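Morning F.,

Quick status update on the modeling queue. The single chain you submitted on Monday has been processed. Sequence for confirmation:
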Amino acid sequence: MPAVMVGGSFYWLISGDSQGILEFDLDRRSLSWIPMPVEHNGGMGNGNIWVMLAEGGGLGLLFLRGFCAQLWKQKADCKGVASWVLGRSIDLDTVLSLNSEVERMYPLVVGFAEDNNVVLLWTYIGVFMIQFEPLQFKKLFESKAWYRYYPFEGVYTADTGIGGAHDGAKLLSNT
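Structure tokens below.
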């Protein structure tokens, strides 16, 4: 799974003998291990868990449990000790009209657009784009098979001027 940048750090989901989040702090040039907020069955590669920007900023985690999406946020106490807090739960069956009583294929996270904090979610009726703040969704297309998607959000150009001078890079977003 790709990393997400929150503040001055990159975060990756790590699975294996122990599961958690690896943080690389760019300012301190240090690595830290962050334990998961919940126990879960199944591998992280199954599309049921994803690191992301939390609502209101900071490190967040999207955890899918069946047809329920849980949004977790890391909060620091007065001593600076960080812990996980469940922000909110969203019933995907109701929001996306999935009819879970008939269909037992659980939704999967298949992509993430970091700049816009948008999740691509595969369901048995198609792929949805979901933005959690504010809660908005759009069905993109129908697909019975699921794949990983890497949404395109923008590119940097070299912006070479006349005579070979460089004025610096420019970000071209959503063009």
